[in-house]
Protein: DUF3526 domain-containing protein
Organism: Caulobacter segnis
Amino acid sequence: MSVILSVAGNDLRHLVRSRVALTGLILVALLTFAAALTSKAYQADQAALRERLQHSADRDFEAQPNRHPHRVVHFGHFAVRPASGLAAMDPGVEAYTGNMIFLEGHRQNSANFGDARQSSLLVRFGQLSPALVLQVIAPLLLVFIGAGMVAGERERGTLRQSLLAGVSGGALVAGKGLALGVAALIISAPAFALLFWLGASGGARLSAVVLSAGGYVAYLAFWTVLIVGVSAVARRSRSALIALVGAWTVTVVLAPRVAPEIAAALAPLPTRVETDIAVQRDLRAMGDSHNPNDPYFAAFKRKTLQAYGVARVEDLPVNYRGLLAVEGEKLTSGLFNRYSNQAFAAMETQGRVMDALAVISPTVAIRRLSMTLAETDLFAYRRFLEQAEAYRYDLVQRLNRLQATAVTAADDAAKSNDSAAEARSRISADHWRNMPRFDPARPSEADVMGRALPALLALLLWLAAGALFMARAGRRLNRSAA
């Protein structure tokens, strides 16, 4: 162990004396610190903004005057997505997905106001975040300062001297790996500080913080052992550098771009235009509640009259128009849910494909792990959409039932021509002031951990493979000295 520490200490001294390596370490560490600081400030601002928007939407909805319930249905409401506690570490897909949905009767609207659509074009190329620095920039810096750790000694002739002096190849690569690992920790220290501050302040679950930190340690450790292993088997520093830059390009740049395309090809999603056309086609075929001869609603009318034991709509103890609104919303919501479930099923398949494709790149694995634990992945977005739709359906049906029970059929029919009937069809605003507010629930801790597990296992497999490669490179050094 003392030999390993001695080798590591010697290499760290070389790194400190090297102006290029030291400057690179300082600059990337400062970049990580700036990313952590700006991302935390931005996400705090976003969280406060979303809270204000939801409060404003609730206030405007409750401030409506006395009016007909169906007008409240079309007045609508807003559901705002709460900010994630770990979004400051990894904003995930939040810049590209919407954060607010307009809720109204007879429609399922998509989420709007994603940051990439409102901000400058730079946001579309990736928001500066600690996750981006650790996933992309940190490995590249480690490649440049570590590619010549062993190969450089071979070129200078000092490697053979160390091996003949009794230093084993395994101890040599372990010491150099330890030194490079210290450099990686220096780079990532601000990001890890942000992670644990978020956990300590209650902004994120401690289990997610610990697992996320462990994932990034494993990711940087993989690059550390890979760099030292390649440097140990390469004849020249230049050859090691070229090979490692190529590996970085493939695993960090190319694979994360190709993997989603593969997933989309294996589980294609219908376009928005195709879905809208299909929904409108099915809506026309579903039935028309305004047509007395429509087969579906004619049958619904007979069933309703039979249930209440009356012969005419006028004899019903409730407003039949309200019952029609309840049934119509039930039909249209069922149709919308069917198409959205099909889209979500395709997304879920794509997610499984991405989990499988983590074996082609550790960067794909760490991105999946990081976004899942930060609750900024597509699954978290889907959960928001589903909870918003459940709230919308409940709200609209409450208002439809008010039309059926709080507005008489006579006043409802005459309100367009009789001002007195129109006034009586307006019910008290206390009804919408007492409506439940949108309060989405977070996924359970077990659910988040379960979805993060495949990516974590893939990352650990990459680390084990890299450690095995470095160990074999160390044994090869022993044979070369013999």
